[in-house]
Amino acid sequence: xxxxxxxxxxxxxxxxxxxxxxxxxxxxxxxxxxxxxxxxxxxxxxxxxxxxxxxxxxxxxxxxxxxxxxxxxxxxxxxxxxxxxxxxxxxxxxxxxxxxxxxxxxxxxxxxxxxxxxxxxxxxxxxxxxxxxxxxxxxxxxxxxxxxxxxxxxxxxxxxxxxxxxxxxxxxxxxxx
Length: 177
Hints:
Layout: E1 2-6, H1 13-20, E2 27-28, E3 32-33, E4 48-49, H2 52-60, E5 64-70, E6 73-78, E7 89-92, H3 95-104, E8 108-114, H4 117-126, H5 131-145, E9 153-156, H6 160-176
Parallel strand pairs: 1-7, 1-8, 2-7, 3-4, 8-9
Antiparallel strand pairs: 3-6, 5-6
């Protein structure tokens, strides 16, 4: 099965997925992006960092299952990433791309992760973002939350361990059925 993990930027999707890796055998789909690589990121593990020209070529060649422009950069998932040999595949997608993918394919399971505004602002500040950036992200988060009802499952990330356990419960119950 393919599970889509999504939610506004800063809600803890990556942290949750990383914590799940100790309890669940899954393939984590690596997205492509045109944004600059951060110092702590590893190409091919965190993202495939490519140029805009390379990204557009993948799109033109119909090799992407979804893609979005977000924050001035392109993000997307290649078809080869969802064809990996694994019982469980996790996709960490931006909300618009995830919503489009869910509307096109009923085989995907959507899990929307969220936190309250105060915590989200705190996390964005801790990442070193300025007030203008935070304001833009909060406006975007509000728009993204409007799509929350389109997802089969919702997890409020108040506590990382609780969130991980909730998602594992979702996956285990669906894998058993």
